[in-house]
Hints:
By secondary structure, this protein is of the alpha+beta class. The protein has helices at 3-11, 50-57, 70-82, 91-107; strands at 17-18, 25-26, 35-39, 45-49, 118-119, 131-137, 140-141, 156-157, 160-168, 174-177, 183-185, 199-205. The chain contains 4 helices and 12 strands. β1 and β2 form a beta hairpin. The longest helix has 17 residues, at 91-107.
Amino acid sequence: xxxxxxxxxxxxxxxxxxxxxxxxxxxxxxxxxxxxxxxxxxxxxxxxxxxxxxxxxxxxxxxxxxxxxxxxxxxxxxxxxxxxxxxxxxxxxxxxxxxxxxxxxxxxxxxxxxxxxxxxxxxxxxxxxxxxxxxxxxxxxxxxxxxxxxxxxxxxxxxxxxxxxxxxxxxxxxxxxxxxxxxxxxxxxxxxxxxxxxxxxxxxxxxxxxxxxxxx
Length: 216
């Protein structure tokens, strides 16, 4: 859009036009090469300072696209527009901008951190569907309850993480198949018996993954 066309669109407004990015007024006397113009699907004219436009739309890290926290960004959008003050006639423009930002956030595909692993505390798979699971196994002591094995000969096995095929049962319990393809039932948290191995599913994913998920 040419600078002259921007001025023409700006002249159609009888009230003061505010930049949704910073809340400052945009006037015909301003340098139009530093002004961005957007017309919404509801035929509302929106003017941005180029710096504000870039800050909102085009922020990127040097190495490419970044993962974002959609919930945090949605809160930021809400707080950002609540902070804008000005002519009450700009309320419609601000509301439409906020709705547009939120719609674009919602339309983005969800990308989980940890290389695709989904923590069970955030989301669960469909019941009965076979998925890849990260199993956190407790440490345990072989022959712990045996009175025949001297204490110094009892073997301690440390905690470990493993990746297996597993599924969530109708009863809400995780089950997985170990390296011998034996089915094992998991618990929600480690118990206190040092002679027992407790298995807890911490994360899952619908595709192959090499590195297991590890809780921070």
